Amino acid sequence: MWVSCMMDLKRARLHIPELLALCMLVVGYCVISYFHEPWFDEAQAWQIAKCASVRDILFEIPHYEGHPPLWYLILLIPTKLGVPFEVGLKSIGCLVVTASAILILFISPFPRPVRLLLPFTYFLFYQYGIIVRPYCLMLLTFLLLAWRYPKRHTHPWSFVFLLMLLCLTSVYGMLFAAGIALCMSWELAQEKGFGGLAKNIFRDACTRALLALLVLAVLLVLEVFPRPDTMVMSAGGKNPFIVSLSCALFTFFGECTLYTSSWFSKDRVLSQKVSVPWHELAVLSLLGLLIWTLLISLSSKKNLKYLVLPYVLFSLVAASLYFSVHHVGIVLLFLLFWLWIAIEDEQRFEIGRAMLKRMGATERDAYLAKAVAYVAVACGLVIPLYWTVRASLNDLRLDYSYGRSTSQFFNEHGLTDSKIFGGLDARAFKCNTPEAQNGDYVNTNDVGTPVVTCAYLSKNLCYNLNGGNDAEAYLHFRYPTYEESQQAIKSWREMGQPDVMFGYASDNSKTLGNIYSEDDYALVYVFELNSIWKDSYHHADFPIFVRRDLLDTHGLQELGGEETLGFKGFKITDEMRAQYEAGVPIEDIIAQYIDKESGEPGT
């Protein structure tokens, strides 16, 4: 027994650096997470779990959210137990991040310096850690898949179960799971032949497991397939498919490890809608080819398909459909899976050695190639660590979102029971529906501003967010019919003059008519959004207006002087009205005001 205790103590001492790193990670996560204000996407998922029925979560909401229901079902537990918004959300985030870090620190085959630094890099720690979204589940699942990979054929059900879990995390997880499953099927066909595989398809444990995965995948595709009235569907936009595909194939690896391209400088835009300078794309594509060469050199012929097939499948869909900039880190999560299995492969560097031999490379050339690989790995760790530091510092000093501050403001001034009208997003006045052609269609469902604040409260704050229904205090990503829209506007006007205008409305006169006058309202509060992306941030101010005759009742004063400067650009001017009537898109008219301040590196 004494010898066993000494052995355990010795093993523990060997892991002291990993234990210290894990402690630092948990402490750092708790500190930064405490200051982080969850933004709309985090709050929307929480509100769906809190308000929606299980039936809607399973069968209705996925069509409009584009996400499988697993994340909402997980959040269902703390919401139904009455756990406060931030406590419940961040506790789940901390648990998942800690579990992922344990796998990296104590189980992964990466060299110790890599294992110690990797959990602190930007996408693992901040973008998919501090910001708590289902992508943290993707990281954990990819790591578990890499761990179980050697037993994928001997114990197929445990590996395929993890592929099922990956499918349930997001649509992108479904794509990568499909690619990995195709690779497994390829190996089975090589081993048994297509005839033998078809003959024993229901007898072999591996094929039965893959068939079960296929059934789940088909059901999930049917579940998340967008309906015709879904607000966010095919992105369209500026870029031809070949440009978007080139970005996905040749720049995404570098984008999540080494650099920030000019078209991926903000996290909340669609990759299909950004302008891509051809000369910059050409340079970064060359760098991407170098990265591909290094990855292929590391691989064996047997495992190369696990890199190429899933990633090409993902790239084809990401280039043609919806893909937001902050999704680019998913590529890193998949890359970690593949690097893990490549390093554990006894035939690693098989292709690299063959390439050097074919080129007639000398020992000096081989040494140079190894040096390039080491430099690439070092840069791929140091740069994301720098992003983590900058993002964390920005989160400590800036309001990432506004839910915490606005909920306190409404509570402190007794405004939660007032008639509050939430501003409609600019998208509400530019919709891809036939009815929009007549010029008076408004997407009355697009009232996203109150959702983040409602997550802190026990009620629906705004009467124009799903009729003020407390059971629907989240955004429906569904275009209402023209008749539904007109009925909503009619009901809003019947409510009379609002007590409070919450958030920027593109044109309240279009929805409220002449029942109010801007002169009747005073600006009493300006809330901030600071969208942090890597080492920069993008700032926007939004207002809260209260009727002047209610200021004394609620102990409020009108803001003046410098306090209003950040908001002056949001007032509707005659010039802006003329542009709108001339057919200029709303987002183009107000773009210079919404993104008027941008925090770049060094600010």
Give a written overview of the molecule.
With about 600 residues, the chain is mainly alpha-helical. Among the domains are: about 20-150, no CATH class; about 405-600, no CATH class. It is about 55% helix and about 5% strand. It has helices at about 1-15, 15-35, 40-50, 55-60, 60-65, 70-80, 85-105, 110-115, 120-130, 135-150, 155-170, 170-200, 205-225, 240-250, 250-255, 280-300, 305-320, 330-345, 350-360, 365-395, 405-410, 450-455, 480-495, 510, 575-580, 585-595, and strands at about 420, 500, 520-535, 535-545, 595-600. Strands 1, 2, 3, 4 and 5 form a five-stranded mixed β-sheet that branches. The longest helix has about 35 residues, at about 365-395.
Keywords:
globular; 5-stranded mixed beta sheet; 603 residues; 26 helices
